[in-house]
Structure formats: C-alpha cells, structure tokens
Amino acid sequence: MAMEMRLPVARKPLSERLGRDTKKHLVVPGDTITTDTGFMRGHGTYMGEEKLIASVAGSVERVNKLICVKALKTRYIGEVGDIVVGRITEVQQKRWKVETNSRLDSVLLLSSMNLPGGELRRRSAEDELAMRGFLQEGDLISAEVQAVFSDGAVSLHTRSLKYGKLGQGVLVQVSPSLVKRQKTHFHDLPCGASVILGNNGFIWIYPTPEHKEEEAGGFIANLEPVSLADREVISRLRNCIISLVTQRMMLYDTSILYCYEASLPHQVLSPGPLPSSLICELLCCLFRDNMHISPILSQHPSV
Fold this sequence. Notes:
With 303 residues, the protein is α+β, with helices and mostly antiparallel strands. It has six helices and 17 strands. 18% of the residues lie in helices and 28% in strands. The radius of gyration is 23 Å and the shape is flat. This is Exosome complex component RRP4. GO terms for molecular function: RNA binding. It is found in: Cytoplasm; Nucleus, Nucleolus.
C-alpha cells in the first residue's frame, strides 16, 4: 500500500510563481531591490548598506547587470525616434519653443521642417520673417525627436509630410509611461476617427480625413465643420482613454478599440470616464484565453 506524505513548506511569493514574461516587480521608495553586489546601479536606485534600494515608485527593469526603476508617473524623457505631440509656446529666431511634457521646452528649428508645399531649398530671410505664419503660439503639432541634448532638452523635426500642424480634434494628456511603444503611433480606427499616440503622453484624437493633403506640407489646418456623429465618436474615444488611464492600463490602438466597442451600448452623456463595469468587461476581453482571442489581439501577443 503506497502512502504519500507532504510536509509544510513556506509558500513562495506570487511574483516568483508567475512566469518570467508576466512578472512585474513594483517597488516604492525605500524598498530593497536586491542584496547582490554584482549588479550596477541605474536610474531610480541608490546603494545603501550594501543593498540596492529604490528611490522612486515604479517597476524594476533589468538589462544584463544594470538595474533601474521606471517611474510610474514622471515627466517625458525624450529618445531619438519618438513621436510626440506638442504645443508651440514661443517663436524665436529661426526656431520655435514647443511644450512636450518634458522638464525643458523642446526646440523645432526652421531648418528642421518642410516648407509649405514640400519645397526643398535653403531657408532664406523671407522664411524667417514668415515663421509666425507657419506656426504661432498655441498651435498644436506632431513631430519626431531628432536629437536629445545633454541637459535633457529635445530637438524636433517635421520633415515628413505626415508631421506638422494639427487641425480640429481633442487633446488628451496622460502619463508617458502608459503609452505603449509601437512601430507606428498614427492609427486610423475603423470607428471613423484617428489617433496620434504621442510618446510624451499627449494623445490627439481627430476625425479621419477623406483624403490626404499631400501638397499642404503639414501647415494647412482643416477647419471644415465636424459632423455630430464624428464629434460623438471623438468624445467616446476620449472617455475610453480616460477610463483606461484610471485603471493604469497601457494605451495602444487595440486596447482603445476594445474599450470603444465595450462602450457602444452606453450613451455619451458627459466628458467624464466610463462606468467601472466597462473596465471589467474590457479586462475579460484582453486577458481571456489565447485560443479564444480575436485576430486583432494576435498582433499584440504581449498583452
């Protein structure tokens, strides 16, 4: 007769029982990250009593022997190639100052933009005098990070025709840590609206244009009246994004589209966030078994 005996053992923490890909190590200031002296100290950490301690609240990230803490709520830290949405704050000599949710104002040089019509030539004194006609204080633009200076300031460029002045739409400001990095941040959603998910936490929602103004050079804003149906779609998308931010969920085209579809049975009554029950429904859609996930989620296997 076989007998099986089990002795009590200490239960491992939940973070150790989860898979390596799903593990998310969250810390608060003062938490001990590791006591191993073989690791190097990165951003958001400091050494104390031969221990690596977190100095900010966030998630621990490790690259080989380097450990850093990515803050949950912080100002935008620019990286080359990032897509940003910003607001012109000042017109200076041969440059514009742009607010991009970073510690310092970003810079857009006159030589780093396409002239109206996409004309390729050297910038002249007439172009410098007409700078305020291109972009003035208060204008919203989409741009790409060209360089990051030693003090953290960011240099932008709008040399592609997909960048430039933004027309009619809604601006939503969120934490940069909630915007998922993707290959493209310009999305035309099937609901009839488009979004620009800026890496700096500025999200621009606008009606999808019927045709692209290739000859405009990104400085002619479309001021045609927006229909009531398009305004309702934009308002619903704005509420969906705020709801996702409230639940600290990552923002990308799939999560926004799922939240939008879950909100269709409800009417857009106010600019506030959607009911929390919709978030639960969205979570069920995003984290259901992989065998039953819809094709749109297969593009994001990390969800």
